[in-house]
Amino acid sequence: MGGPPVFNPSTPYRGHLNGGLSARSTIVVKGFVPTTAESFIINLKEGESDDVALHINPRLLSGSIVRNSFLKGKWGKEEVKVAFNPFARGHYFDLSIRCGMDRFKVYANGDHVFDFTHRLSAFQKINTLEIQGDVKLSYVQI
């Protein structure tokens, strides 16, 4: 993690990863899902383009966590299956996104939730974190 943590940032949130992601980088997002929440979005982007290397979209009404990428103007194939869903209305979460050489490993509340294979092979170009939607952030470290 490169920069200092940000406490209680407002939503929507946009943060810059100085120097981009590297293997073994970890991004931490802590927050609360309001009781009226429907969904929220966490995007890891290449800031110079509209490319989204990792799109995480917890959908509270369906209980799913949609993952995808948006590269060269097109959405990829959605991934939805997870062993468990740590996001629930009225609950706090502690999310860690770890960048590896070939995939992201995502943990919530200390437990592994899913892996997402890199679709943007030059993951070092990922330099922006965006969070928006129905979530109250308490801590972000990138």
From TrEMBL:
<dbReference type="InterPro" id="IPR044156">
    <property type="entry name" value="Galectin-like"/>
</dbReference>
<dbReference type="InterPro" id="IPR001079">
    <property type="entry name" value="Galectin_CRD"/>
</dbReference>
<keyword id="KW-0677">Repeat</keyword>
<dbReference type="GO" id="GO:0030246">
    <property type="term" value="F:carbohydrate binding"/>
</dbReference>
<feature type="domain" description="Galectin">
    <location>
        <begin position="13"/>
        <end position="142"/>
    </location>
</feature>
<keyword id="KW-0430">Lectin</keyword>
<protein>
    <recommendedName>
        <fullName>Galectin</fullName>
    </recommendedName>
</protein>
<dbReference type="InterPro" id="IPR013320">
    <property type="entry name" value="ConA-like_dom_sf"/>
</dbReference>
<dbReference type="Pfam" id="PF00337">
    <property type="entry name" value="Gal-bind_lectin"/>
</dbReference>
